[in-house]
Amino acid sequence: MTQEQKKGTIQEINGPIVTIRLPGVQNGEQVRIGSLGLYGEVISLEGDEALAQIYESTEMVRPGEPVEGLGHPLSVELGPGLIGGIFDGVQRPLEEMFLKAGDQIPRGLSPLPLDREKLWHFQPSENLEPNMPIINGARLGVVQETETVEHRVIVPPDIEGELIELAPEGDYNLEETIAQVRDRQGRVHHLKLFHRWPVRKPRPYQSRDNGIEPLITGQRILDTFFPLLKGSKCAVPGPFGAGKTVVQHQVARWANADIVIYVGCGERGNELVDVLDSFPKLKDPYTGRPLMDRTLLIANTSNMPVVAREASIYVGITIAEYYRDQGYDVVMLADSTSRWAEALREVSGRLGQMPVEEGYPAYLASRLAAFYERAGRVETMDCGKGSVTLIGAVSPPGGDFSEPVTSHTKEIIQTFWALSKELADARHYPAIDWVDSFSADVGTAAEWWHENIDRGWEKRRAQALAMLARDAELSRIVNLVGPEALSSAQRWVLEGAALVKDGVLQQSALDPVDTFSSPEKQFMLLDLVLTVYDEGAALIELGVPVQELSEMPVLARLRRCKELYDSSQTDQLKAFRDEALSDFKAIHSEYAQRGEQTA
Amino acid sequence: MSAKEYRTASSARGGLLTVADVPNIAFGDRVHIRDQQGNTRNGQVIRSANDEVLIQVFEGTAELDLESTWVRFLDEPVEIALSPEILGRIFNGLGEPRDFRPPIVSNLRRSISAAAFNPAARTYPREFIQTGVSTIDGLNSLVRGQKLPIFSASGLPHNRLAAQIVRQAKLPDDDSRFSVVFAAMGVSYADARFFEEEFASSGVLGNVVMFVNMADDPPVERLTLPRMALTAAEYLAFDLDRHVLVVMTDMTHYAEALREVATAKGDVPARKGYPGYLYSDLAEIYERSGRIKDRHGSITLVPVLSMPSDDITHPIPDLTGYITEGQIVLSRELHNQGIYPPVHISPSLSRLMKDGIGKDFTREDHPHVSNQLYALYARALETRNLASIIGADELSARDRRYLEFADAFEQRFVQQGEDEDRSIEETLNLAWDLLSSFPPQALTRVNETEIAKYHRQSA
Ligand SMILES: Nc1ncnc2c1ncn2[C@@H]1O[C@H](COP(=O)(O)OP(=O)(O)OP(=O)(O)O)[C@@H](O)[C@H]1O
Ligand SMILES: [Mg+2]
Hints:
heterodimer, A: alpha+beta, Elongation Factor Tu (Ef-tu), domain 3, CATH 2.40.50.100, Rossmann fold, 4 domains, six-stranded antiparallel beta barrel, about 35% helix, B: alpha/beta, 3 domains, 23 strands, binds adenosine-5'-triphosphate, binds magnesium ion
């Protein structure tokens, strides 16, 4: 598609917002400005002038310099070569930029996101033949993108009609035509292994489906207590240092997803380096292949220009939808959505728009909702199933959850993993607060757990939560009048809650064994701790002093089980359980005898 | 020279000057402003259109009149001249000498607003730095290339702690010291002199570059000063292969200067009058620390800031915490008890510690010992709280042990001399002294092998 390039000039520079005069430019169109050719996007039109937000620093750019309209909105390239890569907020390939341009990101440089020379082995779909009608989203064939990911080459969403020709099996680069389709207007499209899609426009699907199974993250407090379904929306709010990034990294590592997209949005450079360094060495617990083989990074670090930060989230979600359309379960993590909202605020401030709360524009809530709405489990155009699970970190100023971004987000999502400063300060990790957190999907998750792991799941989960609530209540009493006021049974509740916290909820991301817990292990640990509690409670009824129970050496061991036995060592865990129960039996028979003697 | 001069100033307000009808002036351009006395002020273009240019004047616009003001556009960004000669020198926020010695002459000039490092160019920092301070080394370890601020408040000994870190910081088993870049914004004469004397008496002065802006110097200069300092640090680290320790004090004055300018420009405020872009602005500064692939040098950043009204949720410490890789928090309560350094460990954190300690780095028990001390101290503080309500006599024997632990921890582990340089080995042994007051089964964060090896009762 050749289009006449629109030319114009810069009128005014106000930081990242530049006024241009560019006849015929469209709202949302990509532009290049100045002698360096900085990339930007038109955000409003006023008479014969337009305002553009620029993704790069405008230092030393001057009025009168040229402007060029590119004729299309901000779009991403979708095709093989995405997985394993790291891109910036407007999909520039950062590895390649590093090799080409050195340590710092130069301005005006824009290598193509996907490698044009690399050859991919294309295997056409067997059920397709020339002259067949073909719908958008139909699978033309596959390419092995990484060891783990089979890339399904699909007809782009805006094209359908009749298949004229499909390339035979063979090696192709991205520029070669692999199929020709004649649309209803008679126009012939030359399809390649990749296509482009505008990032602000959700990709189409047939229909939405309800979530049916939980995303397993290997994190006990998440899977067992606040489950998240595949295709669901989730927020992770918390003050600085509470553990949002660690939670997201853990999910990226251990979730049973096909594709993981991690968007570092206005956060630290070193956190992305951490992923780049560690993921290739870690094995996917489900496939045994390097984790990087299913992972893709989008990086707009906090020191990169703010406007590209706003775009980065859309770049990420569009790529996520693209893999969903191939029939995959995709998880997208965004760290942090607050930085994205701040980027919105900054641009709206420069435009002189009326702020409503804490400087944020009135459209904050609707933009947030529209973004999260792109998550979901769907029936794809070619009648497959795919999902995008969206997990956004939220960074509330001062840790105050009533601020605009947290409170609006809370209304949109289904699962809320609230991080607490108190827990983090005590080094109780993950510092997820069991009182403030919630999941609207426990019922659906329970069906899965009951079917696949144990019928007792929902009951045990509820028992543990009730015990934690009771613990909070009793602790308040202790803080008012001292521990003497509690009965033995009540003191055993405190001990039981402590066992749940230490033995089940706490889970170190740094411990090589504990970092991942299979659903079986999760349930066994929970059931074990609660069984120990129940046994103890029965003994207390018999008159055994709490003191004696609290000092049982087996309890210290119980707290360490999570690190002593990995997910495959369920037999050892069972053996330990028998050992622990026999200790309780011993006390039981001792007291039962005594009881008989005194009776 | 392509510099252009104009006499068309059209308005002056606070630190802002507008000049009419000046075509094709670059955004961010440096400006010289000559007033009617012939004195030159410095400025920078912060908005540019052909009919009007907005200039931020570093020295302010007081006593300027619109008629006789000359404005000269230098057609260059704000830059700093760099050469190895900068070591041992003192500059102001514009990079001009303030030690009465001649300016640096060099062909190498760099814009102080560097482009962002490509994350693909970074390497993950993991070399443990021994500061000799137990609360840092043992519990919140610093690594080369980290940004780890000190959150303090007025009247607390943050300067003394920063100076102690500068004096003692080294890699264990390696005696090479850091080159130091010192950036002072809005500091008192006493504080500036304290650091100068510190550097002189510890013999590092020849290895220090100082950038100083006093409390009575123009506030706008505080905005360029840390960028000058970091451009110098990058030069030392990545051109001259040095390991650089950058100390910046007081970032609160920096943020206040930013607010002053933002308010004058009419920027929309977010919280407490600070502009919404305070986060990005601070990040531009802090993210200049780190390690780069195939470069020998590194930049480790220790900014000091005072928390207004001791409030850690104030936007300045809050946004800083969201950007930096942890924080060392000083406590007035500990300070009032005479404990130096008054590091409150609960809210303190080092995020890069996990990859720089343990086997092959410090000692295999280090991560667990740190965790265990944290857990015990958290519990001990709760117990102390309880004791203050119901009285210590009402506590169980178990709880009393926690109470004793809290005191011992503060007095023996946290407390140390200003010249006391503890090795990491000493710090960890001291930790085990304290842990050994508990029976092994109460220690569930350390493993059984570690207990067998280090617990005094087991040994
Ligand atoms: N599950 C965990 N296991 C072990 N350590 C953890 C865990 N969660 C958090 N931590 C510790 O807490 C530190 C801070 O966590 P993290 O960086 O995730 O915080 P954050 O909430 O993302 O903060 P910010 O908003 O500033 O980015 C980590 O560096 C790590 O030391
Ligand atoms: Mg984080």
